[in-house]
Design goal:
The structure is a single chain. The protein is mainly α and 79 residues long. Helix content is 89%, strand content 0%. It contains 3 helices and no strands. Helix 1 packs antiparallel against helix 2. The protein is elongated, with a radius of gyration of 16 Å.
Length: 79
């Protein structure tokens, strides 16, 4: 069961990072097209990084806390 949870956790981390990359690429494109300013881009980058860190931290915390792990697995398998 731990192996499954770790694997799911890794997939989640990859997904979170891919979403971050997509959002930042989109923001950089908007800045290139003068739709947002450099300051807005920097602010967005900081905000996205903070959110990413928060999600990854929550994920790591749940991987280390068995009761959270078990409830997460049950939630995803009860569909």
């Amino acid at each position: 069961m731990n192996k499954i949870v770790r694997s799911m956790g890794e997939k989640c981390k990859i997904s979170i990072r891919n979403i971050r990359r997509d959002v930042l690429d989109s923001a950089k494109s908007q800045q290139k097209n003068n739709e947002i300013s450099e300051d807005e881009l920097k602010s967005l980058q900081d905000q996205v990084q903070k959110e990413t860190d928060s999600f990854i931290f929550d994920l790591l915390f749940s991987e280390r806390n068995p009761s959270i792990k078990e409830s997460s697995v049950y939630l995803t398998t009860d569909e």
